[in-house]
Amino acid sequence: MEKTQAKPDSAAGNVDYKVTPSKEPLLPHLRLPAPTSATITHINWSSSLFFSYFKELVGREVTVELKNDLAIRGTLHSVDQYLNIKLENTRVVDQDKYPHMLSVRNCFIRGSVVRYVQLPPEGVDVELLHDATRREARGG
Amino acid sequence: MATTEEESAVKEPLDLIRLSLDERIYVKLRSDRELRGKLHAYDQHLNMILGDVEEVVTTVEIDDETYEEIVRTTRRTVPFLFVRGDGVILVSPPLRTA
Amino acid sequence: MSGGPGLESLVDHTISVITNDGRNIVGILKGFDQATNIILDESHERVFSTKEGVQQLVLGLYIIRGDNISIVGELDEDLDSSLDWSKMRAHPLKPVIH
């Protein structure tokens, strides 16, 4: 736990910490341009491939392997644009070694801690993936 | 912007990966992991879907008595694997030789 | 596009959070946001070790930053109370290595 460093003035007490609003923007060079339709299109196509793919996989059994070496098997319930994953009817693959989640049946896994997702072979249409990938690559 | 260029033009790193679609590639990952598999999909984060994947994990243990390093590799195969791009260190296209 | 982790259904329910440093914190979900920051009431940590059973540390009201969260699990309270955690021995979970 970090402690806030004591400011030298604070020892004297009665320090006014109120921030006086300035008319000038703090970081004028960081002001973003108004969004155009082009930038919005860009955001839409970028990285929607796997988001869309995982949405198609909802209802199937997957195994999510995390960056802490935990592997959780379950039914894919939902996914969001960060590739956060919700699983239902979960079980940890090596439950004897990892009893920590024994009483958890449904869970939310943060996308950033996912290393792999083992996919059901029947849920992979190779041709479709190739086409979608080429389309997405062109968009960039 | 690249609509008039032919499919095989290689201008940036990801173009080289595009040319590896449906080919077996080598991927080196963080935490001493390596993958070999057929590339079926990828995006600009290097998230990928690989097929017929072989994973090799290298671990180093120190012997309690001799303090020697014991290097172990564990292998497994997975039919289809989604790989999150933030763990990818390098991607190598299929070898032309061998 | 719908945003956020969609934890509405877990509000006022007991959840088990695995943090990136491998800790297991159990408490009642009171709130969350887009970044998976969460408010946990009546929270306590379950400390796993191989030397003794699970120890409970009382923590109270906690706000956990989303960046440090690996898993948010819905605790099945019937299942949970049927388990004898004081006899459970296990290594603590490994930290997440990005």
TrEMBL record, chain A:
<dbReference type="InterPro" id="IPR047575">
    <property type="entry name" value="Sm"/>
</dbReference>
<dbReference type="GO" id="GO:1990726">
    <property type="term" value="C:Lsm1-7-Pat1 complex"/>
</dbReference>
<dbReference type="Pfam" id="PF01423">
    <property type="entry name" value="LSM"/>
</dbReference>
<dbReference type="GO" id="GO:0000398">
    <property type="term" value="P:mRNA splicing, via spliceosome"/>
</dbReference>
<keyword id="KW-0507">mRNA processing</keyword>
<dbReference type="InterPro" id="IPR001163">
    <property type="entry name" value="Sm_dom_euk/arc"/>
</dbReference>
<comment type="similarity">
    <text>Belongs to the snRNP Sm proteins family.</text>
</comment>
<keyword id="KW-0694">RNA-binding</keyword>
<dbReference type="GO" id="GO:0005688">
    <property type="term" value="C:U6 snRNP"/>
</dbReference>
<dbReference type="InterPro" id="IPR016654">
    <property type="entry name" value="U6_snRNA_Lsm2"/>
</dbReference>
<dbReference type="InterPro" id="IPR010920">
    <property type="entry name" value="LSM_dom_sf"/>
</dbReference>
<dbReference type="GO" id="GO:0046540">
    <property type="term" value="C:U4/U6 x U5 tri-snRNP complex"/>
</dbReference>
<keyword id="KW-0508">mRNA splicing</keyword>
<dbReference type="GO" id="GO:0071013">
    <property type="term" value="C:catalytic step 2 spliceosome"/>
</dbReference>
<keyword id="KW-0687">Ribonucleoprotein</keyword>
TrEMBL record, chain B:
<keyword id="KW-0508">mRNA splicing</keyword>
<dbReference type="InterPro" id="IPR001163">
    <property type="entry name" value="Sm_dom_euk/arc"/>
</dbReference>
<feature type="domain" description="Sm">
    <location>
        <begin position="12"/>
        <end position="97"/>
    </location>
</feature>
<keyword id="KW-0539">Nucleus</keyword>
<comment type="function">
    <text>Component of LSM protein complexes, which are involved in RNA processing. Component of the cytoplasmic LSM1-LSM7 complex which is involved in mRNA degradation by promoting decapping and leading to accurate 5'-3' mRNA decay. The cytoplasmic LSM1-LSM7 complex regulates developmental gene expression by the decapping of specific development-related transcripts. Component of the nuclear LSM2-LSM8 complex which is involved splicing nuclear mRNAs.</text>
</comment>
<protein>
    <recommendedName>
        <fullName>Sm domain-containing protein</fullName>
    </recommendedName>
</protein>
<dbReference type="InterPro" id="IPR040002">
    <property type="entry name" value="Sm-like_LSM3"/>
</dbReference>
<dbReference type="InterPro" id="IPR047575">
    <property type="entry name" value="Sm"/>
</dbReference>
<dbReference type="InterPro" id="IPR010920">
    <property type="entry name" value="LSM_dom_sf"/>
</dbReference>
<keyword id="KW-0694">RNA-binding</keyword>
<comment type="similarity">
    <text>Belongs to the snRNP Sm proteins family.</text>
</comment>
<dbReference type="GO" id="GO:0003723">
    <property type="term" value="F:RNA binding"/>
</dbReference>
<dbReference type="Pfam" id="PF01423">
    <property type="entry name" value="LSM"/>
</dbReference>
<keyword id="KW-0507">mRNA processing</keyword>
<dbReference type="GO" id="GO:0005681">
    <property type="term" value="C:spliceosomal complex"/>
</dbReference>
UniProtKB/TrEMBL annotation, chain C:
<dbReference type="InterPro" id="IPR047575">
    <property type="entry name" value="Sm"/>
</dbReference>
<comment type="function">
    <text>Plays role in pre-mRNA splicing as component of the U4/U6-U5 tri-snRNP complex that is involved in spliceosome assembly, and as component of the precatalytic spliceosome (spliceosome B complex). The heptameric LSM2-8 complex binds specifically to the 3'-terminal U-tract of U6 snRNA.</text>
</comment>
<keyword id="KW-0507">mRNA processing</keyword>
<dbReference type="InterPro" id="IPR034103">
    <property type="entry name" value="Lsm8"/>
</dbReference>
<keyword id="KW-0508">mRNA splicing</keyword>
<feature type="domain" description="Sm">
    <location>
        <begin position="2"/>
        <end position="78"/>
    </location>
</feature>
<keyword id="KW-0539">Nucleus</keyword>
<dbReference type="InterPro" id="IPR001163">
    <property type="entry name" value="Sm_dom_euk/arc"/>
</dbReference>
<dbReference type="InterPro" id="IPR044642">
    <property type="entry name" value="PTHR15588"/>
</dbReference>
<protein>
    <recommendedName>
        <fullName>U6 snRNA-associated Sm-like protein LSm8</fullName>
    </recommendedName>
</protein>
<comment type="subunit">
    <text>LSm subunits form a heteromer with a doughnut shape.</text>
</comment>
<keyword id="KW-0694">RNA-binding</keyword>
<keyword id="KW-0687">Ribonucleoprotein</keyword>
<dbReference type="Pfam" id="PF01423">
    <property type="entry name" value="LSM"/>
</dbReference>
<dbReference type="GO" id="GO:0003729">
    <property type="term" value="F:mRNA binding"/>
</dbReference>
